[in-house]
Q: What sequence folds into this?
């Protein structure tokens, strides 16, 4: 009877570094669900932003603030994934075709499956261009950037992240009839297209640069483990320190300045209330810095295949679609049980419309602790479907499964 050979050190190291990325990706996706549950279920979310200093509390602000890590971390890790993908596929032309087709597929999903999941309405009165939209366009741009020298991509990425706030003074109106182009690129806005309102929630700059920066970090995962961990830790520490310095100076890096408030907690909230749409330099330093430190810490950790964070991180698009439909469906059920009307939430919640639509119950929503309970139960319910789909992907050789 022959003994089973132990995995080589290189195999173990590869598994560890991919595990750390999957765990972080899964963690931010779990946190992301909290923000979307808050949109649909929290009473206060229907009337005011958790970043509104006149209404917010420390607990409510933290509930929103912690979710700021989701989009930039996932975008950055997607860039790292593009490095792995280009290394496996060999031909840059093949990799470019994959990125373009996947990017177009993501844009299609945003405009159809995800918009329907968010509104449960086929009227398309309001269309939301959210994070999957910007992921799609970023991948399409990356299809071209991967043909450039890595150093050139790094300069473009870091330069865009560092300097894009210098564009804050440029207003869409300056472009006249094509002002919408600047809205798509840099300024969040509602755009009208006939009877349809299009909310550009995620302008493209500098999200593309965040993905490109992750792509440039990819080769670091081919370094010896100790060198890689030290680099990730130092880069994360420097980025986090740069956030505190730039934010304290309060001159550049975020158009939303902080100020001394009536209480210490509100002053702290003001300090950490950085701009996400589009993501300011402060916002990206605040989120990506700690994420890099987390990657350095998790680089040594091994987890089981069934670890929930690893599972969610391995099937991100499947999880994303499933969690949106689950959240909205549950809100319809609870509204029916509470108000005797199942049609109340066959539309966007008031938090997304900016006001209570006609006939909508003004007492709609639940307390923040109840919102957290709903979030926990919903994420737990998503585990088994995601575990099943992860195993389907592992067994199948179908290239189509890589798109979901």
A:
């Amino acid at each position: 009877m022959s003994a089973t050979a132990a995995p080589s050190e290189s195999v173990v190291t590869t598994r560890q570094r991919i595990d750390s990325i999957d765990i972080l990706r899964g963690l931010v996706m779990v946190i992301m669900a909290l923000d979307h549950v808050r949109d649909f279920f929290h009473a206060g979310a229907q009337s005011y932003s958790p970043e509104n200093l006149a209404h917010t509390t420390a607990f409510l602000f933290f509930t929103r603030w912690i979710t700021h890590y989701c989009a930039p971390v996932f975008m950055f890790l997607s860039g790292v994934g593009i490095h792995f993908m280009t290394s496996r596929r060999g031909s840059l032309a093949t990799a470019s075709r994959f990125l373009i087709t996947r990017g177009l597929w993501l844009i299609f999903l945003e405009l159809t499956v995800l918009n329907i999941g968010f509104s449960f309405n086929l009227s398309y009165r309001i269309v939301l261009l959210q994070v999957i939209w910007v992921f799609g366009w970023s991948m399409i741009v990356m299809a071209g950037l991967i043909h450039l020298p890595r150093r050139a991509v790094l300069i473009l990425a870091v330069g865009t992240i560092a300097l894009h706030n210098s564009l804050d003074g440029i207003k869409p109106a300056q472009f006249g009839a094509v002002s919408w182009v600047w809205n798509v690129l840099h300024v969040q806005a509602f755009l009208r297209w006939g009877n349809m309102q299009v909310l550009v929630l995620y302008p493209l700059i500098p999200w593309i640069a965040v993905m490109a920066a992750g792509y440039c970090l990819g080769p670091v995962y081919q370094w010896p483990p100790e060198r890689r961990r030290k680099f990730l830790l130092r880069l994360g520490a420097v980025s986090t320190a740069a956030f505190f310095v730039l934010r304290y100076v309060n001159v550049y890096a975020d158009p939303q300045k902080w100020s001394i408030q009536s209480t210490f907690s509100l002053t702290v909230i003001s300090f950490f209330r950085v701009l996400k749409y589009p993501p300011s330099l402060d916002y990206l330093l605040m989120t990506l810095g700690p994420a890099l430190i987390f990657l350095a810490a998790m680089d040594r950790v091994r987890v089981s295949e069934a670890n929930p964070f690893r599972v969610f991180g391995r099937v991100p698009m499947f999880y994303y679609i499933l969690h949106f439909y689950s959240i909205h469906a549950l809100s319809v059920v609870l509204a029916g049980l509470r108000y005797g009307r199942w049609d109340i939430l066959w539309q966007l919640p008031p938090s997304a419309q900016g006001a209570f639509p006609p006939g909508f119950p003004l007492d709609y929503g639940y307390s923040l602790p109840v919102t957290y309970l709903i979030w926990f139960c919903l994420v737990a319910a998503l585990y088994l479907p995601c575990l099943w789909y992860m195993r389907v992907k592992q067994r199948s050789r179908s290239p189509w499964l890589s798109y979901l």
Summary: The longest strand covers residues 189-193. Residues 257 and 293 are 26 Å apart (CA to CA). Strands lie at 126-129, 189-193, 196-200.
